[in-house]
């Protein structure tokens, strides 16, 4: 891709400004910046009483000043041959502080807005040499949304933007994780949230205003109790040790003083402390436009597009709005590195698998209905695969996902949470074996519908084996993966302790029950368990293999606490079966007595359960986005009526149960299923 920089400099004599175009090794000598006319009028083009003609006039003037003089021929040469498929990447580097607040995004050449041209990818920043940003990190993209005001009318606007963001990012299982910090009480609380999540991106939805006594603008926060505090540029440097790679400042009024104030502004402060890209707004943006911008921008981001391409797509979407208010020019993209290096994330699906395999499995497709529970998602995901770990060694290798309902609801979301984690782990390169222990198991040729639902330890092993080699798995094991195990199993279940000479390698399972009446029963059970674990370790090779056992409460308690605990759970928990990791999904009150207190420190626990009343409207907006629709007044009215009920807790399948009775949701589901 061709690259160029447009640099505005201060003249050496301190009078006037110069323009330098650089491309590759070629740079022209500074030529004078053209006349900007009455500069204060350029700063008024986004005022409410400004017209589209005012913005066109400003755009023509800005273009002529920057590119219509002595650099016109050089600029024309650079643009020649550029297309949407082979664009010119341009960075505008404005050194004089007094020129940074001008709306350069409005530049027009021969009636065309330059910053909306498909053959141009334009941004602000400094032209910097390419640097090594290290190894790309595996998905998912981690985003922290910070909402700065609890006021009811303004909160509704923030909620619409949040719903658009989460709807885009979270509709793709495993590719993004979004958390929300509502109205932090202090900079300390904000910093703690950033340090805990270590987000790739922080998205502020807050007020921006001039600091008392003048100076650069600051972010203003209102707490739930009605108090307030401000974050100014000087506070940013010492705010956190972790530096997000992208900061989005959707703060009204913030940029009117200077959206990209490199001297003391918030945008530059985040850039100076390590953010590779900062987005701010030049003026107030309507909530409807903010939703369009957010959705379009993050759609590009989750597709892995470079940051400037994401911005170009968002500008294009804003430019198609029927109102001619110039809102497409409000976002300012400021970078401190090449756009490709802002968020170098990659998908690492296991060898032999493809990322799109997730979309052919119903258990992962259905995750579009899984909303909320963001803290539980992070706890469960990180229990076995903490992205903060530099050596890749998990703190724990066994995770128990339990469910508990305060309202005695039957469903608590355990399976949804487990499936979401599996999708996430899969896209981070882990092999996944998902086993549903509620399914019946029968030997080949047995009567249809036969088998058992309450499983002893041996039935559990056979269920895992049969489902592991099924083509329905994300990571199916080879059909012959268990041939040596089958030979050992056939020998040991009937009572042979010693190997039979010449016997049995590669046999199929003869499906004999375990014979407890012959000698060495405990030793034979241990050997069977050891052979099973050894088989899984062999097929895993050196890549993590996560075995997820859903409906673990279908296992006989004596088997789970006996053979399976000693032969499978404990060895994995203590790291003696690496690279195996294990997830057990069952009601919390059923699992808790099984695990000895002495082992609790090596086994992770996450409990998931009901929605609280205060969450319902936000979750309903997110659910609507997952279904591909904006919630209308009738839909929100239904949910608000529920939120006024005296009960504090609601089941996690609330929205699924409501869907047939909410016209908008029912229509959206029918459309999705038809497609």
Detailed description of the structure:
- By secondary structure, the chain is an alpha/beta fold.
- The chain folds into four domains: 2-125; 137-346, Rossmann fold (3-Layer(aba) Sandwich); 455-580, no CATH class; 611-674, no CATH class.
- Helix content is 35%, strand content 19%.
- The chain has 22 helices and 25 strands.
- The strands form five sheets. Strands 1, 2, 3, 4, 5, 8, 10, 11, 12, 13, 14, 15, 16 and 17 form a 14-stranded mixed beta sheet that branches. Strands 20-21-22-19-23 form a five-stranded parallel beta sheet, with helices on both faces.
- Strand 13 (217-222) and strand 14 form a beta hairpin.
- Helix 15 packs antiparallel against helix 16 (521-540) and helix 19 (616-626) runs antiparallel to helix 20 (633-643).
- The longest helix has 20 residues, at 521-540.
- It starts with a strand and ends with a helix.
- The model is unreliable at 254-264 (pLDDT under 50).
């Amino acid at each position: 891709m061709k690259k160029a920089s447009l640099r505005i400099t201060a003249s050496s004599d301190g009078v006037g400004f110069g323009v330098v175009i650089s491309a590759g090794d070629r740079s022209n000598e500074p030529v004078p910046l053209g006349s900007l006319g009455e500069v204060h009028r350029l700063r008024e083009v986004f005022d409410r009483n400004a017209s589209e003609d005012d913005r066109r006039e400003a755009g023509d003037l800005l273009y002529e000043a920057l590119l219509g003089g002595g650099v016109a021929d050089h600029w024309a040469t650079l643009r020649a041959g550029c297309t949407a498929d082979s664009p010119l990447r341009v960075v505008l580097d404005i050194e004089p502080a007094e020129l940074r607040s001008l709306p350069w995004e409005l530049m027009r050449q021969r009636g065309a807005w330059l910053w909306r041209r498909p053959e141009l990818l334009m941004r602000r920043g400094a032209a910097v040499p390419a640097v090594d940003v290290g190894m790309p990190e595996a998905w998912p993209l981690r985003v922290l949304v910070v909402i700065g005001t609890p006021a009811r009318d303004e909160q509704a606007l923030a909620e619409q933007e949040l719903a658009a963001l989460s709807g885009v990012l979270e509709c793709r299982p495993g590719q993004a994780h979004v958390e929300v910090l509502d109205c932090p009480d202090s900079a300390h609380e904000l910093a703690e949230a950033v340090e805990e999540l270590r987000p790739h991106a922080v998205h502020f939805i807050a007020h921006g205003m001039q600091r008392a006594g003048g100076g650069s603008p600051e972010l203003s926060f209102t707490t739930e109790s009605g108090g307030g505090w401000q974050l100014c540029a000087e506070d940013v440097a010492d705010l956190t040790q972790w530096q997000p790679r992208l900061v989005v400042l959707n703060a009204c009024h913030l940029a009117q003083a200077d959206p990209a104030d490199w001297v003391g502004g918030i945008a530059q402060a985040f850039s100076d402390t390590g953010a590779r890209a900062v987005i701010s707004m030049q003026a107030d943006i309507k909530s409807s436009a903010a939703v369009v911008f957010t959705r379009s921008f993050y759609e590009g981001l989750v597709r892995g597009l470079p940051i400037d391409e994401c911005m170009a797509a968002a500008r294009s979407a804003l430019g198609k709005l029927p109102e001619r208010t110039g809102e497409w020019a409000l976002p300012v993209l400021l970078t401190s590195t090449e756009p490709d290096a802002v968020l170098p994330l990659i998908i690492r699906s296991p060898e032999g698998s493809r990322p799109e395999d997730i979309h052919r499995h119903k258990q992962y497709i259905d995750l579009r209905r899984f909303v909320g529970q963001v803290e539980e998602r992070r706890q469960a995901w990180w229990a076995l695969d903490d992205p903060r770990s530099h050596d890749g060694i998990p703190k724990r290798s066994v995770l128990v996902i339990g469910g508990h309902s305060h309202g005695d609801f039957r469903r608590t979301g355990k399976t949804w949470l487990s499936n979401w984690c599996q999708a996430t782990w899969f896209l981070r390169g882990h092999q996944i074996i998902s086993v549903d222990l509620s399914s019946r198991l029968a030997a080949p040729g047995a009567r249809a519908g036969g088998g058992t639902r309450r499983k002893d330890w041996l039935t559990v092993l056979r269920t895992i084996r049969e489902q592991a080699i099924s083509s329905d798995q994300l990571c199916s094991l080879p059909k012959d993966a268990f041939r040596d195990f089958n030979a050992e199993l056939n020998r040991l279940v009937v009572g042979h302790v010693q190997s039979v000479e010449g016997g049995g390698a590669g046999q199929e399972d003869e499906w004999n029950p375990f014979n407890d009446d012959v000698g060495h029963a405990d030793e034979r059970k241990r050997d069977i368990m050891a052979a099973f674990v050894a088989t899984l370790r062999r097929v895993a090779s050196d890549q993590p293999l996560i075995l997820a056992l859903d409906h673990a409460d279908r296992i006989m308690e004596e088997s789970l606490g006996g053979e399976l605990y000693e032969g499978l759970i404990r060895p994995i928990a203590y790291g003696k079966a690496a690279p195996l990791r294990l997830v057990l999904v069952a009601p919390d009150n059923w699992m808790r007595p099984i695990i000895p207190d002495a082992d609790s420190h090596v086994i992770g626990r996450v409990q998931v359960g009901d929605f609280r009343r205060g969450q319902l409207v936000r979750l309903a907006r997110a659910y609507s986005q997952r279904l591909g629709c904006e919630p209308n007044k009738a839909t929100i009215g239904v949910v608000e009526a529920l939120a006024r009920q005296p009960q504090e807790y609601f089941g996690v399948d609330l929205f699924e149960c409501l869907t047939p009775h909410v016209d908008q949701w029912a229509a959206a589901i029918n459309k999705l299923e038809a497609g």
